[in-house]
Every structure is written in structure tokens, then in C-alpha cells.
Amino acid sequence: MPAPAYLSDTAPGSGARVAPRSWLRSDAPALSLDGTWRFRLSPTADLPEDVAGPALDDSGWDELAVPAHWVLQGDGEYGRPIYTNVQFPFPLDPPHVPDENPTGDYRRTFELPADWPEGARTVLRFDGVESLYRVWLNGAEVGIATGSRLAQEFDVTDLVRPGTNHVAVRVHQWSPASYLEDQDQWWLPGIFRDVTLVARPVDGLQDVWLRTGWAGGDGWVEPELTADDAAFPVTLRIPSLGVETVWTRPADVGRVEVGPVEPWTAETPRLYDATVESTGETVSLRLGFRTVEIRGDRFLVNGERVVFHGMNRHEAHPVRGRVFDEQHAREDLARMKRFNVNAIRTSHYPPHPRLLDLADELGFWVILECDLETHGFEKNGWTRNPSDDPAWRDAYLDRIERTVERDKNHPSIVMWSLGNESGTGANLAAMSAWVHARDSGRPVHYEGDYTGEYTDVYSRMYSTVPETEQIGTDGSTAPLLGCTPAQGARQRTKPFLLCEYAHAMGNGPGALDQYEALVDAHPRLHGGFVWEWRDHGILTRTADGTPFYAYGGDFGEVVHDGNFVMDGMILSDDTPTPGLYEFAAMASPVRFTFDDAVGVTVANRRHSAATDDLRFDWRVEHDGRIVARGVLAVPPIPAGSSARVELPAIAVAPDAETWLTVEAVLAAATSWAPEGHVVASAQADRSAQALGGAAPAAPRITGWRDAEGSLTLGSAAFERGRLVRLAGRAVSGPRLELFRAPTDNDEGSAFSDPTGSDGAVPGVSSASLWRAHGLDRLVHRLVAVQEAPGALRTLTRVSAADSALSLTVETVWALVGDELELRVEIEPSAGWPTVWPRIGVRFNLPDGGEPIPGAEWFGLGPRESYPDSIQAARLGRYTASVDELSVPYARPQETGHRSAVRELTVGGLALRAFPDGRGRLPGFVLTRHTPQQLAAAEHPHELPASQTTYLFLDAAQHGLGSRACGPDVWPEFSLRPEARTLRVRFGS
Ligand code: GAL
């Protein structure tokens, strides 16, 4: 039996579907049908319609929670999640889907409450079901709907009855709609948002839209009511503004001037409670007064330019998938606020409606995106792409209508987005036309409209720094992606935003500060949205019960995209990554510039809020130890302005580094952070001498002679030239290491800067070049060992199998007073062609009954930093355990590098590091695994048990870039082969 015809139908749905309307808080009766349903999963869609009948005996069926995704319930009993990015997990055969189509039948009964209003209409509402569902009430068919992340109401007035009612829902995982839902995420079927029976009272309010505006201090409401004449009179009340407006008939409904109000902004999310009362129903709303407009190439709210410091936010949870949890969502948004995130793009579909209430309340600029992506068609040159096929026009329009109608009351939403990565075509243009006709108060965004045929802002993803700069530069005629020069000129007349940039997969991204600098320099550029907020790992277990966060391929998918779904600024368990701290530093609302020794300029980079919520703390440290602190007197600085403030007199140490730190902190607790929370900080070097000026001269050693190399120098013991003990414990090294466990960006190959500025080889990842050149498998040959009184010197040649390229490493150990100096000279042979991941040396510290607990250091910290991701690092004294020094990225990779270290204590081993001849200090990594071990593991739990701690001293590390999906490391931060010196002194 072939699958039902509706599984080949491009229509958005059928039956008693009713027009979309706002998600409103109403006093009309509603009955939640969430809870336990009877459930039966079938592998195919060609099923009898027995599910409909109340009489069917379903006592043998399972029970399943609603809302939930069935693949995340049970232990694989109901199938497993599938992760794909662009690929479709079924044949590209639109609009058909395979017969192998997991189908979940859901059934339950409910009692209609005895006081259900007489004569009222009743709708059955589904807030989210993936992907196509067919509904029956009391055995009669109600209708079919699609649009997984869109709400749908069905009119069931004529089917619902007093007493016991029976509802049945058949959900197909795959449907024609799946072709429109090819977002980069897990495919998670099921009824995953609320199901509610809602009474629509006689004389009720079918829909309410309170559009607001603000200008020059005053606010207004432009109401639109959808109600029968009998619902009138209708009263609008805004108690805190003294507004009480009665409209006696529909024709009276009109603009209400509310006088002076505080405007709503993402920084000052002032909301006013309002009610709209008809004869049959009262709805409550929270109004924010703001006006969104585009003026020339500026995107303005309340007349001021908006800069998006945004995140792409998916609904993802390691246990619940896309099932909403308000507490968790609130914590998530509060976390964003703490990290200076001011904007959210709801990639790539409308979130649970409550999320937008939270965004209104906490304050975010929101780009609300429709549930639409057809990316898998790109592979075939967009042939048969639904976006340009009239057969899908209704489905496209239906989707955007349901998107806009549901959420139109939210002040946080400042733009509508048609969807993501769906090519281009007439159906997208039709969506845009519909939005323009419906909501003149918000512009339309869609990145795929490269040439700007039907959208209001110019949007791109992952454009490089030079390209982005060209977009922002007045008068530039540099070509723009997909545009003729004339189209490019049109795009440059619009505000620009990066709807995605800084791909946060694994360790990275680099270059956030470079993008930010462009936003400061070119007002047409309005910032952007990092891809993305969180890793989508799914908590699962290995066969032996070890828990881990799964990604693509971990559930045996036929096609999948591996760990490309682990590209968030927070890990699957909500842990913020160092990349998020870097973001917070880059996006800080306050900037400090130390003009000279006596003053600092404090710039308020906010949209509209002054700085009077902030306190400005300062402290002075001598070699990382606080010697003075206080509070700077900073007058309230209006948004967009700056003030020069006098600094306190600073006691400069004659023989220690002197640093001044200034911090802008919250003067009082907010709903998202405690008092004292740091929103911005900066440091200034006030040392008497330049770094390195105080470094002792290298010892001059004479009298070298060839030796066998077994000797003791202070606390160090050497056997045949090799270190075996140091500071009372077994230690070996230093051994040259050029390899780091490739980051996801090091493994990336897709992108390179079209201008060639980054030197990346198109289509070839850095990691593959490193492996080809054997950087992960260097072998060593001790060439010479020499001794002099109190000193030892070795020369080693380092190279890889089948390679003529080599390095020479000279180590010189020398007793200097009660310290032992080590100098390592690393000299590459001519001809190394690639960038290097690092230039460092490794010491092995076997546990020997006493594992290294961690590190204490004076240097940059507290978190890891790399050359192009170092804005969040501050000079100080830090302590961390070995575990705390590494970030458990979803796929093991390079982690833990602390830059510019001056002093380091590891177990009983204490060292001081000195700058090289060009003032560069080394970094360190302390870890339980070698780069080779990290690189071999796919998940953290696969790392082997370790009996050794490894200490790396890195003369240099390569930058991070974001080439997993974006530009490579900027040349300035690329590590090209070069000679380097490491110089440290161990306390003996
Ligand atoms: C973009 C896409 C996102 C995500 C990202 C890579 O092209 O819009 O959904 O796939 O790339 O992680």
C-alpha cells in the first residue's frame, strides 16, 4: 500500500486549520493536554486509520510524554536522533519521502471542564510537532498540519463534546515539509511543544496587536483588534500610564497617545503592563515602546544606531532536545546578558513563544526567523528548489504568516527573517511582500537574497575581515558575493549585518576583535551574530555506561555531519568556553583608553543607556600582587560619549612589573547578574622598565668539551645528556614539539579569503598539511653532548620519516647561583612550507605516586588564550588544577594554552621565564595527554588513562581563526616557521 497522498502534497495543511493569531495571555478557559499519551511507533507511514477511533483498544501501547521527541525517550526503543547539516537524510525526490518513515500514533482522552463556556468556539492548538501531523477528535478527522516549529490551531467546536473526549494524532517524521526544514541540527520527531484546548469565548478577542512607537520621549499604541462587533466596547488599559481608552465600536479603534514613557531598548527593557478587555475576554500584554526604522544605510531603534553583539540561538538541550524549559531558557538568557550579548537571531525557526517574553523582559534585540531552510538543494545547483517553485508558494506564505502573527506583539523583535539558506526565488520574494504589507514597523532580513531584490538589510555569513571592510567602506567598488557591480552598489545603500560569523566550533574563534574594529570604523556595519550559542550534544552512554555528549555519527546514522553540530560558545552542559569570554571582552559596553600616565578615557559604547548603573574599580599590582585599589570617580557618561577621568597616583615598583587594572562593574544587582559583575576591564603597563629590561643577562659559558652527559646540576640529574630528574621528581625533556591536536578550525578546509590575504591553501586544511609533513610524528637524533663547569649542552636534529626538512635544537643548562637556567634554541632548516601549530618543548612528569595537582602562574589568564583570541586575558597570578586548565571540547583538540607566562609552579617545579630577544614571553600548556593522544580521540571519554602530566613551554602558538566555517588565521597571527628561543630558570 503506498503511503497516504498527503505525504506527497506540498500544501501546508488541510482541514479545520484556522488563521494564525498572536500567542496571547488570556482569561479564556484553556485545558492543557500535555502529559502522558498512549503511543505506538511504526516504521512506515502506510498504516490503517485505526488510530482515529476512540474504540480502538490501545491498552497494549506504550506511554509517552507530551511534549517530547520520541527518539529521545526510551533507550533507543523509538529510534535514534539523526544529525545532518546540509544533507537530507532521505533521497532528494521532492515532494516525496521514503516509505521508511517513522510514524508515531498518539492517543489520549480528556474531560471537557464542566464550566467550559457555552456557545464558545473551541480550538485545539499545537505549538510544535515535527514534521507532519494528522489529528482526529472523537473519531472524526480534524485536519493536517506541517511547520514543525510553528503553532497551528484547529477549530474543533463541532467535534468537542461535554464529558470525555478522545484525541488522536498521527505524526510522520518525514513529509514534504521536511524539504523546507533542512536546518543544521538534529532531526527530532514528535509532539515537542504544548498541546492545548482553548475556548474562544463569545464576544472574545480573536486577535490583538498593540503596535507601539516612541519618539522624542513620548510613546503611542497603534492597536489592531480582530473581534466581532459584539465584542465591543473594548477597553485598553495601561495602569501605570493612567491610560484607559474605551472603543465602543470597531471603527473607534485607533492610535492612542500615551505621553511621556521610558522607551524599550535591549539595555533598558522597560515594559508596561496592559490589558485589552472585550465583553467576553481579557488579554494581558507587556508593552515596550520603541520605533524601528532604516534611515539610509543605518538601522535605528528610537533614532539610534543598533550594533548587534548577537548570538544565533537554537533550541537545544542534551536531554530534552528542542522541548522548552522556561527555567533553563531564563538561565541561558541571563548568561548571555552576563557575557555582553545584546541580540539573538532565532536560528532557524521561531522558538517557544515564552522565549520572546523573556527576551522582552531581559532585553535583547531579536531577529525572529521563520522555520525555513532548503539547503540540501544547493548540492544540485538549487535544481527543483522549493523557493522558486510555484507548487510551494502556499507553504512558504503559510510559514511566514504563522511566524509573524504569533509573535508580532514583542518589542524585542526588531526584524523578521524569512529563513535560512534556501537559495532564492519568487516564493521568498512573496514572503517578503507579505511581511511588508502586514508589518511596516519591522524590516525584512534574509541572507540568501545576496543581490538585495526583496529584503531591507544587507546580510552575509562568514565574510572575511577584508571583505567585510569593503562592504562598510564608502565608495568601495570591491565585488560583493553574487552581485554585479550595480547590485553591489545597491547593497551598499543598506544597513549591513553578519547574520552569522565567528564560527565557534571547538577551540576558537579567532579575530572577534578585528570584526568589532570594523563596526567601530564603518557605521553601515551593524555587528553580527556569532555562530552559535551552544553545542547541541545529546547526553548518551557508551555500551559500558559511560556518559558522553553525542554528535553526528554516534547514533549510527546513514549520513551525518559529525561534530559540526558542536559549534557553540557554551558546551552542551552549559559551560561557557574561553571563546565566550573573548566575545564578552570584545562586546564590552565600555572601552578604556589609557591616553597617558594620568588619565583614562572611558567610552560608553551603548545604544542608549548611560553609565550610571556602573561602578569603576581600579587596582595596582606589583608582579601580580595588589598594592592599592579604589574606585574611580566617573561621571555618568551618556551613550555614545566618552569622558576623560583622572587616574590615582600609582606607586611604580622599581624591580617588579607594575600594572593598573580598571574594571566597570555593576553597581547593583540586576535580574541577570549580581552586584560587582564585571562588564568591561582593561590593563595598563606602568612598569618602570620595559618587559625584559629586568631580565638577567644569559650566562656566558666557556670551556665546553664533549662529554658523556651523566651529571647533576643543582636539583637536575642527566643521563647521557638527557634530563631524568628535576626538583626532586622524575622529569624528562625538553623534547621539541611542533604539533598540536588540530582544532576544528585547523581541520577546516572549505574557506579561504578570496583576496588570498590569509595564505590558506584552498580546499586543504592546515591539519592535513601538518600530518603530511609529519609534524605529529617527529623523531629525534642526539647529535652532540657537551659539558662545561656547571653546564650541559646538547644538540639534537629533529625531523620526520621520509622528510629532508629538519630542525636543530640546542639546549643549554647552566647553574646560575641557586637557579638552573635552560635555554633552548630552535632552528628550522630551510624550506619548511606550511604554517606550524606551535614551537614548543615538552617535559614529561610521570606520576610516580604523586600526580601533578595543577599550576600556579604569573602571566596571562585565567583562561586559555591564543594569538588571535587574547582580548579576555589579563595579567595576574592564577591557580588551576590540571583538569581546570583544559576545556573538554566535544571532540578533543588543542586546549589550555596560557600566554605570556613570567612565573610558573607545577608540582615542586618552579620556573621563571624570560622574554626572548624581541620581548616575547613563552606560554605553557599543562595536560594529561599528548597532542597525539588528543588528536586520536573522537570524544573526551575515549582518551586513554594517563600516568603522566605533560608540561609544554611554547615559544609560540598558531592562531585559531574560524576556518571550520569561515576565514583562516589572519596572517599576523599565523605561525610561519621561524627560529625561536626559550629561556627559563628553575629554582633548584
Ligand atoms: C551556516 C548555517 C548554519 C550552520 C553554520 C555552520 O551556513 O546557516 O545553520 O550550518 O553554517 O555551523
From TrEMBL:
Q: Where is the signal peptide?
A: none
Question: Which regions span the lipid bilayer?
Answer: none
User: Which Gene Ontology terms cover its molecular function?
Assistant: beta-galactosidase activity; carbohydrate binding
Tell me the Pfam families matching this sequence: Bgal_small_N, Glyco_hydro_2_C, Glyco_hydro_2_N, LacZ_4
Please state the Enzyme Commission number of this protein.
3.2.1.23
Chain segments carrying region Disordered: 739-759
Instruction: Please give an example of a GO cellular component term from this record.
Output: beta-galactosidase complex
Swiss-Prot/TrEMBL catalytic activity: Hydrolysis of terminal non-reducing beta-D-galactose residues in beta-D-galactosides
What family, per the record? Answer: Belongs to the glycosyl hydrolase 2 family.
| PANTHER family attached to this UniProt entry | BETA-GALACTOSIDASE
Protein name per its UniProtKB record: Beta-galactosidase
